[in-house]
Amino acid sequence: RRTGKYGTLLLASYDYDTDVFTSICKVGTGFTDEDLDQLYQILSNKVTIKKNPRIDSDMEADVWFEPELVIEVVASEITLSPIHKAARNEIRKDTGLALRFPKFTGKIRLEKDAEDASTNEEVLTLFKGQKKVAHDKNLM
User: Staple 101 to which of 37, 52, 76, 116, CB 3.0 to 4.6 Å?
Assistant: First the structure.
């Protein structure tokens, strides 16, 4: 199904202050065959030889794209991440934020510029406002 397509995408939030896109998750679920076809058509002419300097990520990719596309995802929660760079050092030193269990909603936002994506500030606000779940090992 995904042969010859881009089946997993590295997503980023936008850092308005530095004009950089900071990694926040990889998403590979929620895509229909039609979505994968459409994404291939949109992204195939945005392939770059190396990572754009406006992308802040330590992750490696098989293929890099120019940061020009906005898609919508849902996630179960926003978590602290030693890997992803969104809102890095805002909560804890050398730690960013990541979307846990992201899933594509089916919405490709062609009318938006990449800089219209969720910002690090917005993600940080959502992280601080999400309901905290206490993990009690006696309940497991």
Answer: 76
Backbone angles phi, psi at 4, to 5 degrees: 75, 10
* Run of H or E including 13: strand 9-15
Task: For residue 12, count CB atoms less than 10 angstroms from its CB and return exposed for 0-12, middle for 13-18, buried for 19 or more.
Answer: buried
Reported as a single tens digit per residue, the pLDDT across 78-110 is 999 999 999 999 999 999 999 999 999 999 999
* Maximum Cα–Cα distance across the chain: 53
In this structure, how many other beta carbons lie within 10 angstroms of the beta carbon of residue 41?
9
Residue at token pair 């309901």? 131
- Please give the CATH superfamily to which domain 9-139 belongs: Nucleic acid-binding proteins (2.40.50.140)
Q: Copy the structure tokens of residue 24.
A: 């926040």
